[in-house]
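REQUEST ID: PR-0412
SUBMITTED BY: lab tech R.K.
PRIORITY: routine
TASK: structure prediction, single protein chain
INPUT:
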Amino acid sequence: MNPPKASDSTARTSADEPGAFASDAVQDVSTAGLERSSQPDDSQRTHVVVSVSLGSSRRDHEVHTTLLGHPFVIKRIGTDGDFRKAQRLLAEIDGTVDAIGLGGIDVYVYSKRQRFALRDGLRLMEVVKKTPVVDGSGLKNSLEREVVRWIARNEDTRIPLRDRKTLVVCGMDRFGMATALEEAGARVVYGDLVFSIGHDRLITSLEELADQADRLLPEVTRMPISFIYPVGKQQEAPPDTRYSHYYADADIIAGDFHFIRRYMPPRMDNKVILTNTVTSQDIEDLRDRGVAYLVTTTPEFNGRSFGTNVLEAALLALLRKSWTEVTADDYLTLIRKLDLKPRVVALGAQSSSPHHEPRSDPQDPRTQTSGGGSPKVPESFTDWVAAPPEPL
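STATUS: complete
OUTPUT:
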């Protein structure tokens, strides 16, 4: 699971080209109050974790919390899509905080067979010389996989996965989640071509997803990130409803929230959304559209679920290791100790439960479902992570 170094020769070939969307006007970036405490007792000093995001600054947030007895300040700073501003901020906080997360961008994406480096992700990572820096991919390929398996094994979630028609908006961004959904028996299609490059065709299997990744990613990863992912003000634009039919045909919509929001239709009645970071405003928007359940793979901190890059950076600060030294077992051990749980929110299903019939052949025995009743948030995620997985 060890993430490769940013100096990997296979990943570095396209990292030196200038970003086509970087702003020439470098704005002042304030980092006041972010420096690490100089207290000698490491168990008592405040650990500072900062996520520098290419996303909208309107989603900025800061929390003060305690993890395993250690005080933490966790802060997200959006740069509104300004690449050079993000570079400058990363340079300014390097060496002054305990860990850095890169938000609104991946450094690495994965297929079944290969790992691919995004040019602009590498360019941001390589600015940081002293402080451990992560993009969240370590948790995407471990924690998110386990969250899906936990949902599949816990009937009390009232969110069945087997035979549910599931749209993963970008499987190359969340290959661990995609694999686990298929293992759980969900009927999965992938929107990578639709949501990333605007090609109106779904991918229908993991094998096809791997083939498309091998074919497309060598070129796609050289593009400016704004060409393939919503950044800055793009995250605030009204959703484009041209692909509403893909949402209508799915019971579960899974993946990055900004990809989900990009083409979100006005009504998503009785849908289940499985995603990462959402704000309170996002939750109310989903409720207004009729979404039944929201599951966030990262836990809630003071009413907000942060991105996987933020959580991974916090875990890295606790581990006191470089990213290249960390293993999946390191993360899962900390998850057990911290008793971290995914968040399951009942937003108000319009039927008695999300066990509605999928839109498929009524004679198909796989469409039979059962049960209703009140939602219950399970308490046993970390217990399950600690136990050897059983066959699904």
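NOTES: The two ends are 22 Å apart (CA to CA).
REVIEWED BY: pending
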